[in-house]
Amino acid sequence: MDPGIGFALAGALIWGVYLFALKQYFTDLPPTVLIVYANAFALVWYTPLLVRSLGVEGTVQAIGVLEPPQIGVLTLTAVLVAGAVLAMLWALAAGEVSYVAPISKIVPVFVLPIEVLVLGQLLEPIQVVGIIVATVAVYVANYHGGSLIEPIRRAATSRAAQLGLLSAMLFAVSDVTKRIGLQELAVPSVLWVPLLLAGVLVVVLPVAVRAHPPTIWPALPKLAVLGGVLAVGEYVTTLAFSLVPASIASPIINTQAIVAVLLGGLLLGEQYFRTRLVAALLAAIGVTMIAI
Length: 292
Fold this sequence. Notes:
The chain is an all-alpha fold. It has helices spanning 3-25, 31-64, 68-94, 97-104, 107-119, 125-141, 150-157, 159-184, 189-211, 220-243, 246-253, 256-268, 273-291.
């Protein structure tokens, strides 16, 4: 197996658990506050690896030699990821995880056309079919019986669905900019992770300060664990995007929807679990066809 694909598979498992944990354990925190603390703890967990790899002086030097295009892509990616995570958290607050996951994780449907237009990626017929299958998955996730056009109405009027789609689109653009930064602009993987985490934190911090709850102490242990999961997830994801095209890594990583749907249905007893499981499986089939 290509190492990049292996890292992408590991990322799918980690992010699926992360998505479930957000819905199960952190709905009482404002999304902006959650992002700031999770990223701060992720930086704390990641720092020893960074120091071990580059050293303190080496890290400062590596940051100092970054060129304007590299800094620009990092900044753009941080803004996109911050927006995507916020949209996903708002979607989870408005709907069940087994409903939101199949919708918010059709990221490859948007990634591949962007790579075709921006980076000249060739689009194979099977990949076109994969995009159609992944789109059908959104329809199935919205189907509760009755009229065949009801899912379209539901997706069009559901705040959770709209935010989920917005999250998917933002994540798609960030996946492409991430690929550009790591491959075309050659930003070191070990440096990309902390700079992205710090960038997202800085983008969200001004809003989080205004939304900060009176006390955060009881939630700190959970946030520390979440930050560890985030650090590992970002690290393996970065390794995947540094080794394979975004149109390959993104479909595999976004099969995290299956993990999230399984956990949401089995542990939370959410409604329409079977239908949404079919939707998640269709999404996985679609993104696999896109990755071929």
